[in-house]
Amino acid sequence: MTNQDTITESENLIHTQLLDGDNPESIRQAAIILKEKGLVAFPTETVYGLGGDALDENAAAKIYAAKGRPSDNPLIVHIADTDAVYKLAKEVPDKAKLLMEAFWPGPLTIILPKKEIVPDGTTGGLNTVAIRMPSHPVALSLIRESGLYIAAPSANTSGRPSPTLADHVMEDMKGRIEMILDGGAVGIGIESTIVDLTSEVPVILRPGFITKSMLEEIVGKVTIDPALIEPDPNLRPKAPGMKYTHYAPKGELTIVEGASNASTKGANKVITKINQLVLEKANSGFKVAVITTSENANLFDCENILVAGDREKGETIAAKLYKVLRQCDELDVDYIYSEAFNDGELGGAIMNRLLKAAGHRVIKV
Ligand code: TXA
Ligand code: MG
Predict the structure, then answer these.
(1) Looking at the CA of 160, which ligand is closest?
(2) Which of 147, 174, 195, 294 is 20 to 30 A from 79 (CA-CA)?
(3) Residue-wise pLDDT tens digits, 99-117
(4) Cα(150)–Cα(131) distance, rounded to whole angstroms?
(5) The CATH number fitting domain 252-364, selected from 2.40.440.10, 3.60.10.10, 3.30.565.10, 3.40.50.11030
(6) What is the residue-wise DSSP string for 191-235?
(7) Does 261 or 117 have the greater pLDDT score?
């Protein structure tokens, strides 16, 4: 069943236009919709966002309704020039300025104390605001053309993987929003790094393409929200969105991880274990998929082998991970087994998403 089917007849279906984001006329029309308090999905360099006027409570309410998202989960405000930060935030510490200079426009979101003009509806009642300047030209043009600050969560229905293609947005949002700007496949594929700058030592609330060491190079010591490291029910993540099960495909996803991931022996054990699990489930009549890398793809005996990317290049895995998780739904598989992808600089951010998608189901071999 698609999300479209789940919309009841009593809800008003909106006609969702799909326009070419590279066409200036599309941007003009999208900006008009936003100014009239409607919703437009647009590409960013990380994932597609679902945009509405960030300073309008009603637009925020519409975003939550379209996503089916709990309203205590705050939205990121997208801006196109640094002056906007001073209009939205009460204080802008030096470390924030340094990070803005180093990484904007780009996949970094900063948390600062909010000014009155940012409605509670946008921040989920928090007294802080999340701000990001995306680098995608379509996103920047849309913000500039509308003259607004654009609140934009990822443009998926709540709980599904974030959209990395306009088609993914259409799957989730058709009938719920006025327009989708198509900018093709996004570059990065996982959401921005979120850094809380309301304390002396910056805290990473969500790992992403901008890594801890990249941040530390600019501002010195940075910590990671402890709730992200081990799933502990007593620890509450500081980014409310991080507490929800996320990105999960409908089939049951399990990660099979080698004790010594890098070694050939560890890798062989993982492959043997996954093949054994696939065989067991297939023999019981279930439909199964394997998530792997180009290096290992031909080592599995499974009817659905989904290649996330190249193990040597973490950025290729980040770029395709959500697409592959969505493919599991399209194939309607019952069980999914995935290799772990902790190698390299991006490993932490990729595994943060994959572990959530797997509900932290991990088999270590
Ligand atoms: O890459 C991205 O950041 C994408 C694109 C569209 O820009 N956006 C995105 O938004 O991932 P969303 O809404 O799916 O995730 C926003 C995250 C949530 O986990 C939310 O809890 C957290 O940011 N957040 C927003 N405002 C916050 C605040 N004031 N304090 C702490 N966490 C906050
Ligand atoms: Mg999201």
Answers:
(1) 2
(2) 174
(3) 999 999 999 999 999 999 9
(4) 10
(5) 3.40.50.11030
(6) PPEEEE-SSSS-EEEE--SS-HHHHHHHHS--EE-HHHHS--TTP
(7) 117
